[in-house]
Amino acid sequence: MKKLINDPKNVVNEAVAGFEAAHSDLVRVSHDPIFIVRADAPVAGKVGIVSGGGSGHEPMHGGFVGAGMLDAAVPGAVFTSPTPDPILAATQAVDGGAGVLHIVKNYTGDVLNFETAADLALAEGIEVAAVIINDDVAVKDSLYTAGRRGVAGTVLVEKIAGAAAERGDDLASVARVADKVNSLVRSMGVALTPCVVPHAGEPSFTLADDEIEIGIGIHGEPGRERIKLEPADAIVDRLLGPILTDLPFVSGDRVLLFVNGMGGTPQVELYIVFRRAAEVLAEHGIDIARTLVGNFTTSLEMQGMSISILKLDDELITLWDAPVATAALRWGR
Amino acid sequence: MKKLINDPKNVVNEAVAGFEAAHSDLVRVSHDPIFIVRADAPVAGKVGIVSGGGSGHEPMHGGFVGAGMLDAAVPGAVFTSPTPDPILAATQAVDGGAGVLHIVKNYTGDVLNFETAADLALAEGIEVAAVIINDDVAVKDSLYTAGRRGVAGTVLVEKIAGAAAERGDDLASVARVADKVNSLVRSMGVALTPCVVPHAGEPSFTLADDEIEIGIGIHGEPGRERIKLEPADAIVDRLLGPILTDLPFVSGDRVLLFVNGMGGTPQVELYIVFRRAAEVLAEHGIDIARTLVGNFTTSLEMQGMSISILKLDDELITLWDAPVATAALRWGR
């Protein structure tokens, strides 16, 4: 295992400390329990938005804390759900009196721990709503999930719900728009290589030199099939087929096309993928109205990528375009 | 070789086509010869700024084309200088009548080809100035370089010179500020793994499972020494020593601290590195006034990172903070 770390058990602590040192203009950090909040939290009268989950998927979620997106992010150990304590503490820290939305990826541990934290918050008089993200069309159930997994589509939910909260929508409205994004986004990924969880020290799975895994989960959970390495265009087509037929996306739709790197993929490859995905959407008469390309929902140093497609309407475009100021996404004022 | 590509000889063409499809709000692309220009080029009366070099370092340089930064980027083949033709064409495309600045990393091929293009442009009546970037303190001469290599500090030159051009500075002034940034920035990197150039198909060098290369070049050129893998903090200290003593940076200095990923390094590791670098600067009484963390000057999928430190003054801070709208750096209006 070759990593730029000190002690495997300090990876999250030290990374969060570095994040705090780098982005003190945007965030504050609680070290015990560990969570990251936007610098001006709580914002009075605004719905607070909290997300979180296992570390190792950065910039998700800490990189999305800031004006116009998340109020707090709660990182667990690498690929491990945070416990209810830090989720509760983050919920308290961002409560501006208008309630708090939990954005939770559909993994059993995350769902349970966010639910427990929500119950505890409610007992303290904080109103909490939750949206469970399950955008991955690859498999029906999975290693850590009943139903579909939550993957890169989470980024789009967090941006759009964050914009709704920022403009002053109430908790029910912010939860509605988050649910709407989740209902309109579909994703699927591929791995060329596994990754190594620091405290494990070994790859969580293995792939032969000429093998790739179609439908990989973001913790290396099994996908649909292992196949021999193919040209990028053929791989893109394998991912887009199930994505497009699932919603389905049809001619005349306006969409956001999101090509997400898994952490170790060079940017030239992500753009080669984008190029083919754009060709395929054009063939289907689907209009790419917005785009996102880069490493946003990663699996440490895994080589691979995922494609997410979100069906847009005027409301979602307005919220997507709204200003955002986070470490990983920033535009507008 | 496991890559998300189609044919190795089409990597740059297809990646640029994908870049164009993803960022048509920001850029236009010429496919023959290949270069990327900002959507509104040429901007009348504004100094144009052109950079370029071998591909494989993305987002540098195409990701920095847009308002407030580069007017054009010229990508060569992977790790290979672009020829004078596309550099000349890009120079013509961005000439708004106020002259054009070439920002050139110090590699023999780049320097020669940009010089030739500048001579040809001058013969057409386009005034061209050039700044040669040589921020890498690792080695005195190198595989493709007489003198020091140009590495991640280039990003800082491009942002700050871009802001100077955007506010209307004349060619001599933009060249002066670019030279100033180059004179005040120092960098050094480390590789944990090599990378594979697509048309070569094999790693350009090899490292044992427990070995790292201190002072690596961005094309895998040899650095200062190969050592056994050490804790991240010890590696950071090895890079910071030569960086700090070179300028030198001293107590009371205000700096921009830039931790740059080489392409395959997880973000948690970059922040662990940032944390230690910030500690060391604090011990030296150096004030971190601005920060940048992420994959900006990469070497395909190489695992590793570089640290750059730029000594700031009020002028440089104002220009750094100025709005920028590119695929890879975006803030302000």
UniProtKB/TrEMBL annotation, chains A, B:
Residue ranges occupied by any DhaK domain in the UniProt entry: 7-331
Catalyses which reaction(s): dihydroxyacetone + phosphoenolpyruvate = dihydroxyacetone phosphate + pyruvate
SUPFAM superfamilies: DAK1/DegV-like
Protein name (database record): phosphoenolpyruvate--glycerone phosphotransferase
Gene Ontology cellular component list: cytosol
A Pfam entry, by short name: Dak1
EC number: 2.7.1.121
PROSITE patterns: DHAK
InterPro entries according to UniProt: DhaK_1, DhaK_dom, Dihydroxyacetone_Kinase
Keywords: Glycerol metabolism, Kinase, Transferase
Oligomer and partners: Homodimer. The dihydroxyacetone kinase complex is composed of a homodimer of DhaM, a homodimer of DhaK and the subunit DhaL.
Residue stretches spanning the membrane: none
